[in-house]
Amino acid sequence: MTDTEIVPRKSDRLPADRPPLVDAELADELLARAQSDGVELLGPDGLLSQVTKAVLERALTEEMTQHLGYEKHDPAGRGSGNSRNGVTGKRLLTEIGGIDLEVPRDRAGSFSPQIVRKGQTRLDGFNDRIIALYARGLTTRDIRAHLREMYDVDVSPDLISRVTDAVLEELQEWQSRPLDRVYPVVLPPSASCREVPPSMR
């Protein structure tokens, strides 16, 4: 994720007649409940973290159901050769903080979730945040302090180095690329040649 928002083209936007996934009534209900319980919107135990955890865990449960081919507690699963086998704890770093997930397991060990893949410790976008901070000239120590302050996650210097090293080669290649001898200059229609410095003509 960068500091600039990518605004979708009109053709990429949802149709105007399509209702939003979370309607205003549900959002108001969640916010009212959080406020009455003294829960903040952001932070490690904030509303956004709790909603993200709940949605991800529900999606993982649905993935397991699809993988096994039957619902939880369904008698059709008896004698199927594979069944649910509890959960495994997993810490996932997101842009709103660290989330402790319960990832379902199966007895055969063949379940390979796609929403949060095996071995994955960060949601897409977290690496982009590290790279954006690195591009601004922050040191590994500065990046680590920033992530701790903003997202309440303690990221190891080794992780930051691995992420930045992954783009370092590409960045160095871009910095040392040969420059074109001539660059065209596009002027707004109101500009005239008299306004252009002689060195740029």
Shape: extended
Termini Cα gap: 39 Å
Number of helices: 5
Low-confidence stretches: 1-14
SSE string: HHEEHHH
Protein described:
Pfam families: Transposase_mut. Belongs to the transposase mutator family. The structure is a single chain. With 201 residues, this protein is of the alpha+beta class. Among the domains are: 23-72 and 83-122, no CATH class; 125-174. It contains five helices and two strands; from the N terminus they run H-H-E-E-H-H-H. Strand 1 and strand 2 form a beta hairpin. The chain starts with 23 loop residues before the first helix and ends in a 26-residue tail after the last helix.
Record the SSE blueprint.
Elements: H1 24-36, H2 47-68, E1 84-94, E2 97-106, H3 126-135, H4 140-151, H5 157-175
Antiparallel strand pairs: 1-2
Helix pairs in contact: 3-5
Salient structural properties:
201 residues; alpha+beta; two-stranded antiparallel ribbon; 38% helix; disordered N terminus
Overview in brief:
By secondary structure, the chain is an alpha+beta fold.
